[in-house]
Amino acid sequence: MRLALQIGLAVVVFGFLVLTVINQWSEIQKEGVHFHVWWLVPALIILPFYFVFSAYGWDLILRSLGYRIGFGQAQVAWGQPLLARYVPGSILYVLGRVLLSERAGVPRRISLASIVYEQAISATSAIVVAAYFIIRHPDLQGYPERWAVLLLIPAAIAILSPKVFGPLANKALAAFGRDPLPVVMSLRDVLGLIVYYSLNWLVIAFGVYAVARSVTYIPYNDILLVGSAQAIGYFAALVTLVAPAGLGVRDAAFAWAVKAALPGRSFAVGSLISIAVRGVTTVAELMYVGTVTIIGRRQGWTIPTGILHASPEEQEASSEETSAHAPEIL
User: Fold this and answer.
1) 8 Å CB contact between 88 and 3
2) In angstroms, rounded to a whole number, what is the distance separating the alpha carbons of residues 120 and 116?
3) Domain coordinates in residue numbering, the chain
4) I need a labelling partner for 176 at 20 to 30 A (CA). Which of 110, 118, 149, 168 fits?
5) CA-to-CA distance for 281 and 212, rounded, in angstroms?
6) How far is the C-alpha of 200 from the C-alpha of 276, rounded, in Å?
7) pTM (predicted TM-score)
8) What are phi and psi of 273, to 5 degrees?
9) What is the DSSP string of 165-188?
10) Where is pLDDT greater, at 52 or 305?
11) What is the pLDDT of residues 204-254, one digit of tens each?
């Protein structure tokens, strides 16, 4: 039932965007939609680098926790299971990263801690990027509560500080009968990675802007506005946790946010841009996953579909873990 609800909600929300485009097509035509396909070329060049830099950010988190697996292995361990995010629950995605990281010498508890850090730091960087946009968004000018978004930044940093995150994580581990974490990230490393992930939003800003320009005209000085709209969509998907890979929820939030960069403030055009961004980003994601999978196979340590090349011990461990609940992995 939970699986059906998650998939159903994603289909409903994304279908709502499609219906908006269909029903408001006359309005979209009046807004000057032009479909310049050549703008997709720079988009498909830029967007894969967003995944490369994201994987490198996770590699930096592992280094802060005392483990170095190398740039190439980090790309494979982070990128090969990436498409498993579209499976509701994300358990397969987590398991894939944990198993690949373990092959590279990273203990499972460290891998899980790094994923928790990664999600928290990514969310904090998204808040940093989106804060200015939320405060200045024309639809929110009459709501003084919008300033409360600024409070989320120091709150997230405080939670990620070693004096807070360490006891919280160890308490959660103890509740499941697990050993405490052997190491936590320093506050200096946390702050540095928040800056790094915030800068990575610039990469996706240029890529998403190129996709948006393939649909309609947006001034060059609104590139950061478009990028921050994508950050809002990411944060909305992370908060709701109801759709696989944020499908539908992320797209709807982005459509609402990106309309601030459009001359006519049209949600219908924003929906059309959102659908285009989802499609092009998925293509870029497939390009990235295909590349790192080829690299991993040449290195001889990937996990192919069905774990065809794993040892008997790894096959048995994988089958047991796949049927287990997430807390049992800790």
Assistant:
1) yes
2) 6
3) 2-24+38-329
4) 118
5) 12
6) 21
7) 0.77
8) -65, -40
9) HHHHHHHHHHHTT-PPPS----HH
10) 52
11) 889 999 998 888 888 888 888 888 888 887 777 776 654 555 565 777 778
